[in-house]
Design a protein that fits this description.
The chain contains six helices and no strands. It is mainly alpha-helical. It folds into two domains: about 120 residues, no CATH class; about 30 residues, no CATH class. The longest helix has 23 residues. It is globular and about 60 Å long. It starts with a helix and ends in a 44-residue tail after the last helix.
Length: about 160
């Protein structure tokens, strides 16, 4: 086995081949498309997709796998690599939804789902509506500093 600069370069080129990037793009497209469709709601706040009243977690798993598979079926004649990536993305979506829907809270926390996948609006942080990270330092900055004026566009900077 030969180890040299040419061998490493060819391996890197192989990883970033058109085929591999297209499969990866299909996986990303599956996730983005599924999340977009699942987040669509009617004016009354209910999902556009039919959801059962009793087992919502199972329906979310079915949609998380089914939406990318339908997308893969529609794109397989045009780009088989993209379709293969969409199937992989659908399987990953299904696993994630199954963990979010059925795993115990301590398992979700151990896997990082409790911290990173739960949506927390910025207004909920510190119980302050309109939270701003810059305003958190307002008590420590001196009044003669460059940041003394809290406005991003102070009137004197624009000649008014």
């Amino acid at each position: 086995m030969r180890f040299g600069a040419g061998n490493i370069l060819s391996q890197v080129k192989g990883v970033f081949s058109k085929e591999n990037l297209t499969v990866a793009g299909g996986g990303v497209a599956a996730t983005v498309l599924t999340n977009f469709i699942l987040s669509r709601t009617k004016a009354d706040g209910t999902s556009l997709l039919p959801m059962p009243a009793t087992n919502v977690a199972a329906a979310k798993i079915a949609y998380a796998v089914g939406i990318p598979v339908v997308g893969a079926i529609l794109t397989r004649k045009f780009n088989p690599s993209l379709a293969r990536g969409m199937v992989f993305g659908g399987l990953i979506n299904g696993i994630v939804e199954a963990i979010k829907g059925y795993a115990p809270a301590e398992t979700k926390k151990a896997l990082g789902f409790a911290e990173y996948l739960d949506y927390t609006p910025m207004s909920a942080l510190n119980g302050t509506p309109g939270y701003s990270a810059i305003n958190q330092f307002s008590a420590v900055r001196p009044m003669n500093s460059a940041f003394a004026n809290s406005s991003a566009f102070p009137a004197d900077a624009w000649g008014r």
